[in-house]
UniProtKB/TrEMBL annotation:
InterPro entries attached to this UniProt entry: Tscrpt_reg_Rrf2, WH-like_DNA-bd_sf, WH_DNA-bd_sf
One matching Pfam family: Rrf2
Higher taxonomy: Bacteria, Bacillati, Actinomycetota, Actinomycetes, Streptosporangiales
PANTHER family attached to this UniProt entry: HTH-TYPE TRANSCRIPTIONAL REPRESSOR NSRR (PTHR33221:SF4), WINGED HELIX-TURN-HELIX TRANSCRIPTIONAL REGULATOR, RRF2 FAMILY (PTHR33221)
Protein name: RrF2 family transcriptional regulator
Amino acid sequence: MRLTKFTDLALRVTMRLAVIDGAEELPTSREVAASVAAPYTHVAKVVSRLQHLGVLETRRGRGGGLEITGVGRDASVGWLVRQLEGADDVVGCDDEPPCPLRGACRLRGALRDAQEAFYSSLDPLTVRDLVGDSSRPVLLQLLTSPPA
């Protein structure tokens, strides 16, 4: 299974924001986009979705920027990926034209089970876990020296 680029970017943005402590100035969407090497327009869409999910907050004006919420820090990665990926099937059995095997096919159910097993394996992992020990120094480096 492969995650969409949107979900991948949302996870990177979430991780980037999760390493900021309260003493630092909040980054803007443009700064986050630069630090995760993504176009600003893509990051703006991701920020909107993450804000809707309650994972982060945005503040306007002086002292404003992006900040991860307590819900965001403690969010299960499995839950977050489910929210971002949606409930669509892995294969397009009902696409146009629909698959001629769909009436008697067992593959669709097996793939749905595999997809749920994938998400379930991510359920015990939280965003807080993603930014611990080994990845924290790399994420902190992004704060001071965004990629060119």
